Amino acid sequence: MARCHLHKFGGSSLADADCYRRVAHILLTHGHSDDLVVVSAAGKTTNFLYKLLSLRDSNQLWQEELQVLISYQQGLIEQLLSNEQARDLRERLTTDKAQLISLLSLDSRNDYQISHVVSFGERWSARLMAALLRESGVAASHVDACSILVADEAAVPQIRVQESRAKVQALLAAHPNERLVITGFICANERGDTLLLGRNGSDFSASLIASLADIERVTIWTDVEGVFNADPNKINDAKLLKSMSLAEADRLARLGSPVLHSRTLQPLFNTEVSLAVRSSYASHTDFTLIAPHSSSASAPVVTNLNAVVLFGFKIAGDVASLLEQLGEAGLTPLAHWVSAHQRLELAYTAENQKQVQKLLDAQAEALGIKDLQINTELGLVALVSADAEHYRRSFARLLSRDAKPLFSGDLSLVTLVPQSQVNLLTQKVHRRCAGPRKRIGVLLLGVGNIGEAWVKLFKSVSPSLNQELEAQVELVGLVTSSKALIKSTGVDLQSWQQEFDNEATPWQYEHLFEQLEQLNCDELIALDISASASLTLQYPEFFERGIHMVSANKLAGSGPLPFYRELKEQLGYRRLFWRYNASCGAGLPIQHALNDLRNSGDSVEAVGGIFSGTLCWLFEKYDTSKPFSELVIEARGLGITEPDPRDDLSGRDMQRKLLILAREIGLEIELEDIELRSLVPAHLADIPLEQFLARIGELDDELLQQYGAAAEQNKVLRYVASLDNSGAVLKAEVGLQWIDASHPYANLTPGDNVFVIRSAFYQGNPLIIRGPGAGREVTAAAVQSDLTQICRDLLQE
């Protein structure tokens, strides 16, 4: 049966005797009797061997340093092994010391001899680990990789795959049910001369041997728990990835992962071998598994390189041809940009600079390369995911004018920025794209007709909204005048009414605010879809607790000026948002228009219109064919008026809306500054509703007389709000007016609202906004629009 596991341990995992014991424990508790093990040189042994060569080449004393290294190895042997096992390794170490002295005493050393000197670290580690396992009572042997990995010589040795596979398979057949501890980092040419596999060679050895041995999994044991969605040394809330695809891991490795190396991953392509990255210091913790095949994308990973080299030049030849040549030479750029006038820019790590420049110089004449410039002042920030394109918009919004446009390709988004900006941009991209999604809780205050319509609308748009915002916007509370339901886990939009009926409890403001404090939300937004004056008085407390507000309720925006000023001042003390477009004109963008005019440098001189769908309906229908009072009773029966029609006929609602608009254009006025001419005579204003309905006919004579007088001048009756600030004195009033038959107020669809804006830019031809100004659906839509805008503002960096 095929062996199923290969373990690789790096130098940091073998730094001292305790580390060796920890590794032995891992192998005995996390493995099988026939596992393969690949080891690096212990601690800094390889660096020490290179130091010896450097001392010798510069004719400095090296003997004392060699003794320090040998003593280090002897110390490991003495601490880990019993007398018999230790004696054998001490004898071998004495032989190795003599061989090192012989090699270092030569006047010069060829490449094979240098490689042989450097390879002693891996040989010592393999021998010692195999002996320690035998000391623990299990069968184990050490293997010199030069006996199984055959390579052709090149800048980086090229493994002869078929020949090496045969040697590996023969080795496994000769050692069934035995752990084999194999040296990493080294291989041999066909003559048996030692070759080095280069940087990160031991990891490459592990994945290569796993693929040749048809191993199911290779585990790289290191000093970190696995692959994080950002460098945990730089990003405090970086999260460990449980899994990722091989393609994603390879792209991440090419873009500067501190854990993964692209060369390590190459032998795993077109195999069934999975790769795990685990911590040898915390073997019980979660880890990252890199699967050879994966149909789903991992969470996005943000990585960076503090310094890159950017080649920029004009090219007359084919760009695709040059990129192909670079790829064939193993010099695929990290990213590239083609700008106007056939200028090409290529980003590389500094270690590839000489090779790339050499290739470009060689191809300069053939491809018409000229004006070559090299910039070494930039760093790289990238996001890696199979779903990288999903994050393009969020990433792009974070880029300053100093950044290169996003390069998209190979499961990644890449930009270059000045080196001083790399860390800050990395943090921003992680927070925006890879960090935990912000959870925004929504509290619905008012569960009547409009509230029900909003929940229905929110249910339909929330999936796309969450995807667009890359956040989690959830309904966490429903509140009526008598009961409240607050749920930290979120209210089920499918069964919210049943949940409310079954679980809602009586409430008071103090207890409600305590419950809101306990919610696990990054932000809270309250939607006031009520007409409650007592709720309006609680706005300062909502703001004090950092809760944002959307108001369809007019009472706050049209409240006493000191109270209104207090609310606006609170918004300036912290990052708070209050939007109230639904309080005037329902879904019509009247406040958006006024703000846009002010932002454009325009000056609003006058605002007017018919702000009541009810009064629009009544006066569009009124033609004296039936008394005005009969129309009112008819409208009440159709649900067009409030239950008490005087709430509409008084004009108070339009007066409040005009005040909201006046304050929106910067006028600090009170409700009383707007003259109100009610359609309800004073003697009918305060009597009981039943008496008013019985005497409603008393309205008819006055309106019939007004209608006739207006008609004589080819005018019509309309109930209008108007504000004019163009003169020395502000004029603001709400009341019945005679209107020319050609005026925008004169020909509306019954039930519509119309707003007419005159400004410095819109004089003779004013800006007109008209459409449905009431109704549960359009008001709910206005509330949703304000909610969405606050969410966008909150998520803006």
TrEMBL record:
Q: Which keywords has UniProt assigned to this entry?
A: Amino-acid biosynthesis, ATP-binding, Kinase, Lysine biosynthesis, Metal-binding, Methionine biosynthesis, Multifunctional enzyme, NAD, NADP, Nucleotide-binding, Oxidoreductase, Sodium, Threonine biosynthesis, Transferase
Q: What is its EC number?
A: 2.7.2.4, 1.1.1.3
| Required cofactor names | a metal cation
| A matching Pfam family | NAD_binding_3
The Homoserine dehydrogenase catalytic domain covers 589-787
Q: Does the keyword ATP-binding apply?
A: yes
Q: In which pathway does it act?
A: Amino-acid biosynthesis; L-threonine biosynthesis; L-threonine from L-aspartate: step 1/5; Amino-acid biosynthesis; L-lysine biosynthesis via DAP pathway; (S)-tetrahydrodipicolinate from L-aspartate: step 1/4; Amino-acid biosynthesis; L-methionine biosynthesis via de novo pathway; L-homoserine from L-aspartate: step 1/3; Amino-acid biosynthesis; L-threonine biosynthesis; L-threonine from L-aspartate: step 3/5
Instruction: List, for all copies, the residue spans of the domain called Aspartate/glutamate/uridylate kinase.
Output: 7-277
Reaction(s) catalysed by this chain's protein: L-aspartate + ATP = 4-phospho-L-aspartate + ADP; L-homoserine + NADP(+) = L-aspartate 4-semialdehyde + NADPH + H(+); L-homoserine + NAD(+) = L-aspartate 4-semialdehyde + NADH + H(+)
Q: Which GO terms describe its molecular function?
A: kinase activity
Q: Which residues form the Aspartate/homoserine dehydrogenase NAD-binding domain?
A: 446-567
On assembly, the entry states:
Homotetramer.
**Family under the similarity heading:** In the C-terminal section; belongs to the homoserine dehydrogenase family.
Give the protein's function.
Bifunctional aspartate kinase and homoserine dehydrogenase that catalyzes the first and the third steps toward the synthesis of lysine, methionine and threonine from aspartate.
Q: Which NCBIfam families match?
A: asp_kinases, PRK09466.1
Protein name, UniProt field: Bifunctional aspartokinase/homoserine dehydrogenase
Q: Give the source species.
A: Shewanella cutis
